[in-house]
Amino acid sequence: MLAHGFARVRCESCKDEFLVAFSCKGRGVCPSCNAKRAHVTAVHLVEQVLPHVPYRQWTLSFPHRVRWVLLKDVGLLSDVLTVFLRAVFALQRRRARRQGLRDGQAGAVSFIQFFGSALQVTPHFHSLVPDGVFVPQEGGVRFEPLPPPTQG
């Protein structure tokens, strides 16, 4: 629908022009479609998936030399995300044990982004992690908040 924004595309060979609506859902990078998808995903997570507990966002980015290697190997990128989350979860469990909480479990929702704010190629992770652990109790689990992480 052109009323929601569009881009004018021109073929350099034949000089033909046409309009592509931003609500296209299928023509590559579309700011309108991407914003809608992000909004729908956020609403679904908040209303249907995530428990109502405090969260902390963990972000991991990579040096320039590593970025291209990760972009060429999606399996490696996935493995790196797994290692990153294991490290965050291990930190959560250690902090929980210091507070006397045993068998605490962490979780996360992660998104892999491939571009930075200036559209430079920079794969990085955004992981939303509960700021605490889930501890087994009779009939289910209970959430136990943890203090913020420290540098030490």
What does this structure look like?
This protein has 2 domains: 1-49, no CATH class; 53-152, no CATH class. 35% of the residues lie in helices and 30% in strands. The protein contains 3 helices and 7 strands; from the N terminus they run ββαβααββββ. It has 152 residues and is of the alpha+beta class. It is elongated, with a radius of gyration of 21 Å. The N and C termini lie far apart (54 Å). It has a 3-stranded antiparallel β-sheet with strand order 3-5-4, with helices on one face.
From the structure above, extract its key features.
152 residues, alpha+beta, 2 domains, three-stranded antiparallel sheet, two-stranded antiparallel sheet, 35% helix, 30% strand, Zn_Tnp, transposase activity, Putative transposase, Transposase_32, DNA binding
Provide a short characterization of the protein structure:
This protein is of the alpha+beta class. It has helices at residues 31-49, 64-72, 74-98; strands spanning 6-10, 17-21, 55-60, 109-115, 121-130, 132-137, 140-145.
Write the layout of secondary structure elements.
Elements: E1 6-10, E2 17-21, H1 31-49, E3 55-60, H2 64-72, H3 74-98, E4 109-115, E5 121-130, E6 132-137, E7 140-145
Antiparallel strand pairs: 1-2, 3-5, 4-5, 6-7
Structural class: alpha+beta
Tell me the distance between the termini.
Answer: 54 Å
Overall number of structural domains: 2
Q: Give helix and strand order, one letter per element, not per position.
A: EEHEHHEEEE
Query: How would you describe the shape?
Result: elongated
**Fraction of helical residues:** 25-40%
Query: Counting H and I runs of at least 4 residues, what is the number of helices?
Result: 3
Averaged pLDDT, please? 86
Strand sequence of the main sheet, in spatial order?
3-5-4
Strand content: 25-35%
Low-confidence stretches: none
Major β-sheet profile: 3 strands, antiparallel
Rg over CA atoms, rounded to whole Å, is: 21 Å
Number of strands: 7
